[in-house]
């Protein structure tokens, strides 16, 4: 595990954009699973503002780690947010964009997107493999769209599952631990003081950490990076890095 702690949320975005830009430039192809949320939004803005050559973007394939079951025009759509803050501003080929179709029937879409992953991603040990999975974490310790009340979804034999928000009941499509932990690299983007308690419990391995899906993120490669601002990292006492 590697911790990258920045002073502000914008500094996190700058540092993560540096990291991702280097990865894009040095890779022959790059298959990335994106996250929704406020922190990825400013990361996308930062990436879009940089002069990244078209030839670099041509190597990048975008996927989503989870999506709300809403149309792509809905303000709650992770895809729509990514279009507005990144895709519409860079020269990435349309064929390289592999969205979860939130407008489809959830059970059907979980199966369809599984087929997309099997078709488009390179494989290792017969399992589709991302080069990078970007994750966020909620105040309750959820990640992707796997919430504490459905933590068993993480251990599913399937690559994608239908999840349900614990309060709204909204259906979501989410990747499972099987494919997330198979990625070459996994990164968390977490900012804000409201996340500090769960971050500290997970990093310090204390409290109720075993009940948080985010605690189950442990890529087999060993390459797990946390990009945090000081507010989110306030409770960390571990010296792990």
Task: Quickly describe the structure.
The chain has 241 residues and is α/β, with parallel strands linked by helices.
| Domain module count | 1
Count of individual beta strands: 11
| Class by SSE composition | alpha/beta
- What does the main sheet amount to? 6 strands, parallel
Which CATH-level-2 architecture? 3-Layer(aba) Sandwich
Mean pLDDT: 96
Q: Can you list the strand order of the major beta sheet?
A: 1-11-10-7-2-3
Q: Helical amount among residues, as a percent range?
A: 25-40%
Rg on CA atoms, Å: 17 Å
Order of helices and strands: EHEHHEEHHEEEEEHEHE
Task: Give me the secondary-structure topology.
Layout: E1 2-6, H1 9-26, E2 30-34, H2 38-49, H3 54-57, E3 60-64, E4 66-68, H4 78-85, H5 106-120, E5 123-124, E6 127-128, E7 132-135, E8 160-164, E9 171-175, H6 177-180, E10 185-190, H7 196-204, E11 224-229
Parallel strand pairs: 1-11, 2-3, 2-7, 7-10, 10-11
Antiparallel strand pairs: 4-9, 5-6, 8-9
Helix pairs in contact: 1-2
Describe this structure in words.
The protein is α/β, with parallel strands linked by helices and 241 residues long. It has one domain: Rossmann fold. The protein is 29% helix and 20% strand. It contains 7 helices and 11 strands. The protein has helices at residues 9-26, 38-49, 54-57, 78-85, 106-120, 177-180, 196-204, and strands spanning 2-6, 30-34, 60-64, 66-68, 123-124, 127-128, 132-135, 160-164, 171-175, 185-190, 224-229. The strands form 3 sheets. The protein has a 6-stranded parallel sheet with strand order 1-11-10-7-2-3, with helices on one face. A 3-stranded antiparallel sheet has the order 4-9-8. Strand 10 (185-190), helix 7 (196-204) and strand 11 form a beta-alpha-beta unit. Helix 1 (9-26) packs across helix 2. It is globular. The mean pLDDT is 96.
């Amino acid at each position: 595990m590697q911790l990258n702690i920045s002073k502000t949320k914008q500094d996190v975005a700058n540092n993560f954009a540096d990291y991702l830009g280097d990865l894009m430039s040095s890779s022959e192809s790059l298959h990335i699973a994106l996250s929704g949320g406020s922190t990825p939004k400013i990361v996308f803005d930062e990436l879009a503002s940089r002069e990244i050559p078209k030839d670099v973007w041509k190597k990048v394939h975008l996927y989503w780690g989870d999506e709300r079951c809403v149309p792509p025009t809905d303000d709650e759509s992770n895809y729509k947010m990514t279009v507005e803050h990144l895709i519409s501003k860079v020269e990435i080929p349309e064929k390289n964009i592999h969205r979860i179709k939130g407008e489809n029937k959830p059970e059907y879409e979980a199966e369809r997107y599984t087929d997309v992953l099997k078709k488009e991603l390179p494989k290792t040990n017969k399992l589709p493999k991302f080069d990078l999975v970007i994750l966020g974490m909620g105040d309750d310790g959820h990640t992707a769209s796997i919430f504490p009340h459905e933590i068993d979804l993480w251990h599913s034999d399937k690559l994608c599952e239908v999840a349900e928000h614990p309060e709204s009941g909204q259906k979501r499509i989410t990747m499972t631990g099987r494919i997330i932990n198979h990625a070459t690299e996994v990164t968390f983007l977490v900012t804000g003081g409201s996340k500090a308690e769960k971050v500290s419990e997970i990093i310090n391995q204390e409290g109720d950490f075993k009940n948080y899906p985010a605690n189950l993120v442990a890529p087999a490669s060993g390459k797990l990076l946390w990009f945090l601002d000081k507010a989110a990292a306030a409770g960390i006492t571990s010296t792990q890095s």
